[in-house]
Amino acid sequence: MKRIILVLVLLASPIWAVEPDEMLADPVLEERAQALDHEIRCVQCQSESIASSNADWARDARLMVRELVSGGNTDTEVLDFFLARYGDVVLMRPKSDGANIILWIAGPVMLLLSLGVGGLYLRRRRQTVVQAPLSEADEARLREILEE
């Protein structure tokens, strides 16, 4: 049982990416910094926020967030600091304005378009499948087969 708990703790350790030496003494500022850590994407990992990443860049970014927060910057100013240096890719939830609006709209539009094209294809396919009547020779052959 102890081994299982040890393995689980070792596997879950990357979750606790914020090191004790990174934490601010003021709990209110630390709470703000941790909330911002979840808003900023690690540019090295690209799939994790800096709060859960153990990459060196993420550590530096967490330290920079704490430095900016303790320096009196607002949350918006901290996010703008990272946006100015790394672009929209640094946000875990990209803004839905400007050029990004195309990306936000493209997915649902493509889904609706593909559903419409697929529906039209199936509808036309159903309409074009018309059974032609059997010729007299085919009917005679069918009767022979059924009688056997």
Automatic annotation (TrEMBL):
UniProt keyword terms in alphabetical order: Cytochrome c-type biogenesis, Heme, Iron, Membrane, Metal-binding, Signal, Transmembrane, Transmembrane helix
Similarity remark: Belongs to the CcmH/CycL/Ccl2/NrfF family.
A matching Pfam family: CcmH
CDD domains on file: CcmH_N
Presence of the UniProt keyword Transcription regulation in the record: no
Domain CcmH/CycL/Ccl2/NrfF N-terminal, first and last residues per copy: 6-146
Transmembrane segments annotated in the record for this chain: 101-122
Protein name in UniProt: Cytochrome c-type biogenesis protein
Function: Possible subunit of a heme lyase.
First and last residue of the signal peptide: 1-17
